[in-house]
């Protein structure tokens, strides 16, 4: 009996808990660059990129070769038992890439959530404080501490009770929805007045471009004022670059475009082209605040993933992917704005580099989110052979995270499918 998506979905439902979501009822069999083929032999254009993990595309030859070579040497020793050069080399390259004119050190772990958890641990140890300020709409992971930081209960922590305390939430600036830089700064000052003294706050954590929250870009003037506020009160600024990092926004890290540097930066997702590695990079004095044994993990900084990440960084240089990122972003934004001109349901098209979003609303009113249409567009696009993702606090944002290595012709095919979906549904 040949495998089908339906038969595999039935097996999945019987074997996997329902809490593990699945956006598309499709089982992938193989992939190449920016296309995926399912178990029934149908090819799809991939505008999701494994949720921002495949900036260098599926199975980039250089990444595959690096992993194959590493497989002939060693796959695991646990870095805390026996070290290996790829871990150190990757840390050196990340230290050189992360913004900030100061000495840096990098810790490698396995997932984005783990990176954020460790950034908070480091901030607490470095400052002797416990509190953390996060933002509305922020997404920082699914572990217990990161769920406290994540600004969305349903579905991430629904039914699980209260998450760990000591986390306070400020407003993320968003001009589209009436939250100015002044408003956002004032919301932090209110926390200082009503909830916690500045001397009790170890860190403020922010995504320079919100991921799950809707791809809203933090204004530069806000980031500068946030940096000054942190400096004034001895608070560490953590930039969560898990989704923005590895070239998605047109610079290797989005903070390069913000005019200021964070004290600690988290990264993961596309850094290793589909292999699990994540980390925290920060000022050396803060990174050294925790004694030996206080950081690490059995699989943290896997030799395989480190080899893949080093190859990804070479690919960015050799193929000039930061330039390509800007070209991809411009091409897609131009195409999406042409679609917007025909449909009032598209309230805004926004992007930083190739981190692109369309916000859908009712009757042209951006204060009336249209989650239903968003879901319909995602489903209709899939039927036509395009994999899309949605996001946003109200589920009304379409996001594009296509591999930066995708050819122009494929980008245009994807745009044509999106246009057809809006013509038919909106």
Which terms summarize this structure?
five-stranded antiparallel sheet, seven-stranded mixed sheet
Would you kindly provide a brief summary of this structure?
Helices cover 38% and strands 18% of the residues.
Please tell me about this protein's structure.
- The protein has 13 helices and 16 strands.
- Helices cover 38% and strands 18% of the residues.
- The chain has a 7-stranded mixed sheet, sandwiched between helices. Strands 11, 12, 13, 15 and 16 form a 5-stranded antiparallel sheet that branches. It has a 4-stranded mixed sheet with strand order 1-2-3-14.
- With 426 residues, it is of the alpha/beta class.
- The protein has helices spanning 5-15, 49-52, 61-71, 85-97, 112-127, 144-149, 181-194, 220-233, 284-287, 303-318, 321-340, 371-383, 408-425; strands at residues 28-32, 35-38, 43-46, 104-109, 131-135, 167-170, 201-206, 236-240, 264-267, 278-283, 346-352, 355-362, 365-369, 386-387, 389-391, 397-400.
- The longest helix is centred in the C-terminal third of the chain and has 20 residues, at 321-340.
- It is globular and about 55 Å long.
- The two termini are 40 Å apart.
